[in-house]
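I'd like us to work through together how a protein chain folds, taking it slowly. To get us started, please write out a protein record for me. Label the sequence line and the structure token line clearly, so we can match residues to local backbone shapes. Once you have written the record down, we can walk along the chain together.
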Amino acid sequence: MTDQPPSAHPIALHMRGISKSFPGVKALQDVELEVRTGEVHAIVGENGAGKSTLMKILAGFYQPDHGEIEIGGHVVRHWHPREARERGIGMIYQELNLVPDLTVAENISLGRMPHRGPFVDYRAVTQKATEVLGELHADIDPATPLGNLSISQQQLVEIAKVMADKPRIVVFDEPTSSLGDKETRVLFEVIGRMRAAGIAIIYISHRLQEVMEIGDRVTVLRDGRRIETRDVEGVTPEHMVRLMVGRDVSEMFPKLDLVPGEQVLTVKNISRSGDFTDVSLDVREREIVGLAGLVGSGRTEVARAVFGLDPIESGEIAMRGRKVKIRSARKGMASGVALVPEDRKGQGIIPMLTVRENFTLPVIQRLTTALLIFARKERGIVRRLADRLKVNPPQIERPLSVFSGGNQQKVVLGKWLLAEPSLLILDEPTRGVDVGAKADIHEIIGEFAQGGGAVLMISSELPELLAVCDRVFVLHEGRVTAEIARADATEESVMRAATGQTGQVAA
């Protein structure tokens, strides 16, 4: 490619007048999208704005009710996923589409294994995986079973799988939602090389700073309609938010000034080999405590141990001053602990169940006798909770799988609120969630703390932690390197501790 601006490049994709309806929902209404070669075209909008539906139409999973798709100057109609892939469409979804029991190399060649006669050519499979992972600067052994990798490493394998097809148009749907800063930098470098090679890139993200950094143009969707398309240069995040939600969101991270009460959680010198060592922290009533650190620092492992999903080898945990041995999730719940996990789809919800059924999973024993479920009572409780949490649409008998990520996350939060825990552990509670739903979730967390609850919150977004939390504990390589009060917490002080530079951090 030349050094011409993207506006001078040929049109790679033109979607015109795209409309799509589902029973009771108009997902898209007369949407237009134009993407050029060598361009990063961002698409932003709240969950439910139509972004995913538009991309599924592009990928051939849905057929539009109206409109047409033009690829490289040729109109295509009624195409399907295989044809879309053959035409050079590559899709990298937020939710992983991989097989944990297969190796990294096998996942990268999944569905298109090279053969030598009647047998799979595993040497060629490994060679292809090595080449693609090398392009991504991913230090991953192709022979490793995928299930042994971290979520961020699995996301890089997902990207490698798409890049192995040499696509002409690549859609990134929240690609950094599971990546740390280092992996995100690597991804942006890869996207920069793809752009320079003339690949058209569609980039969907709720992280508006990423859009500002990497995008050339941005299209804003709201309620299934295209609101505006413009150059990223000169636009502000505030302007994008206003277009996305149709109103000003002046306070993304509202913080209540609460007076902490009695100590709820006390963790003293807990350790587990290979994950964390001598970790001590505490959380009080009406307090939100942050747990910061880089990917691999042990944040999630500590949270899982406190909830009882993973054992500790030494140290002790106390709830309200009383030592507890939490050796299972059931015992964690009985001790008053709830965990909203990092992996919403895999660990937080059962997608095929309804909103009602997901809400009441932890408390179903309260709504049953030996033989009967008190259906009327259950529906009443769930309707009130769905209304309080602003679940949209408020249709509690629909499968949770058809709801947006933000609404699914509200259901995960809501089911634990029904359990009335003393301690709520949140692992990336706003990951992959739009700005409107994020504000709703922060409000829910604040209400829980205001009511006397204790919150331990993990987030990779430092502005979120610094704005929401009363104190922040920082982990580096499995050890607590700092405890920083709200008044002293800055992005610099947290990052110094997160990278092990504890000499200049006031604890």
